[in-house]
Amino acid sequence: MFKKILVANRGEIAVRIIRACKELDVKTVAVYSEADVDSMHVHLADEAICIGPGPSSESYLKISRIISAAEIANVDAIHPGYGFLSEKAEFADVCEQCKIKFIGPSSKVISTMGDKNSARATAKAAGVPITPGSDGIITTEEEALKWARKIGYPVIIKATAGGGGRGMRPVLNEATLISSFQAASLEALKCFGDGSMYMEKLVDKPHHIEFQIVADSHGNVVHLGERDCSMQRRNQKIIEECPSPKVTDALRKKMGDAAVRLCKKIGYENCGTIEFLVDNNRKDFYFMEMNTRIQVEHPITEEVYGCDLIKEQIRIAAGLPLSEHVVSAKARGHSIECRINAEDPSRNFAPSPGKINLWYTSGGRGVRVDTHVYSGYEVPPYYDSMIAKLIVTGATREIAISRMRRALGEFTVEGIKTTIPLQSKILTTGDFQGGNYDITWVENFLRQEGMKA
Amino acid sequence: MDKRKSPAKKAAAPKSAPKSSAAASSSNFDLAHIREIVGLMAENDLTLFHFEKQGSKLELRRGSDFEAAKELLKHLPAAQAAPVALAAAPAPVAAPTPAAAAPVQAAAPPAASGPTINSPMVGTFYRATAPGEKPFANIGDTVDDNSTVCIIEAMKVMNEIKPEGVRGTIVRVLAEDGKPVQYGQPLFELKA
Which residues, at least 6 apart from A366, have a Cβ–Cβ distance to it below 8 Å? Predict the structure, then answer.
């Protein structure tokens, strides 16, 4: 087992990783920006090193400073969390060269699956269904037009270097194809430094269903079921649940087997998630992308399958085989997560940074809160707006829903605005209670409520 | 335990600062003993401790110049890698932990009153190109944007550091030679 791990992240996930390390008796090193000097992850870690000013590009994304910190603190391994450098093959490569264990898959695997286009090709080769789409990068407008006609409208144009829901444009008909193609490519170039685009069929009213994979360095690969993440606003998830109310046992078996098959083919190691789109008919499923890291919503899988995925990540990276309880894990109960964001839903979800005067989280049976926030904490303006994850588990989906409504009701945040009122509202709708929502649901709901989607 | 340093904040001044100076004429006293005595003096509110035995002498005064104490303690045999400043002030850092590896950041020096040259990177601070060589910058030197003031080693690369946007005369060296520094950590204090 490692003696010391550097946590290359911030916020709630850094706290999460430090907690797992403490339970494994591993020392922790936090890195922080000047804006995060009072952050919880800094207080909890055994050592802390400042790596730059507030903006991420000057701190949490600075590979050289993070590696320097790892060297002067003499760490054995680095946990990248999610976002930031967690899917940067270059970072994993530098760690490998510096003989610091990167807690995740190899840089080669990150590279293969990180390129959305090559990931699709890899999935296809592993016999995993993919959405009909272009056979690679589309370089000209003529090509785009040709492919769109071949695939059939509606289509979606996506950036191959994109991720996290960015760099994509749906196109409903030929009239808007060329302009969408140009706009998407320009946006991708600006956001990811790479304007290469590919095209896929736009699946009708799809459900976003993802599978959790855990694989060790001894060839053992298991999946821990699915998470339904269809509740999204502008491709950002706001509520997730495990298991999905839409996935039958038969479908789960097919999708789970496909996920494991793909991971075995690429020699995947550590935790990862395969994202699928499932058609409204609940039979056809298509590979969308793979996230070669731990996901934000991993806690709902932990609650239902009875495991600690972060500890498992560390154990796998240290060369240990999968834990017995992970290999034999069975789903039990139902878990829902609400991502609490510092945003004002009534003002078009404008970010709401600032000082939190009062912070009271819910508690009680089946309530888990993953957060870095405390009373008096100042939410900085530089980073994403998620301030807490409220995870609620119950024996059945009905119990979990009623418990989540209870927990959201208690959750008190004063000083800034949050998405709690929105999520509370969503939980009361008949659609949510019946499990009848796809990835277009939230935006329709917001429009109905007279809010900007 | 407040173990992290904030480059943006001033180091908190110790509230009732029992400072002490030490004069030792031989190497019979090791740092651990001296620290113990200093602790006892503070506990019992003593201002002077004088010990002589077989030609060895140790004198500790409480309430005098902190900086002089630091300088003197530097000349004692450095058996341990303990941060020097802990011997005197009850700094914001807690009582010294007997860990084999010291915490990465040095104990906070007293707050600089003038402008400072801060570290633009994470790494190991060196005052000269090699041990025994002349330091790039000394107290009394006047430096500007073109002066190399030190080296910070990061990932096996020796980076020559120049002051960014500040210039002036060096009055204090704030970082320790050969010790790790973090982003924003004050390295040199310039004349106010």
Answer: A392, A393, A394, A399, A400, A403
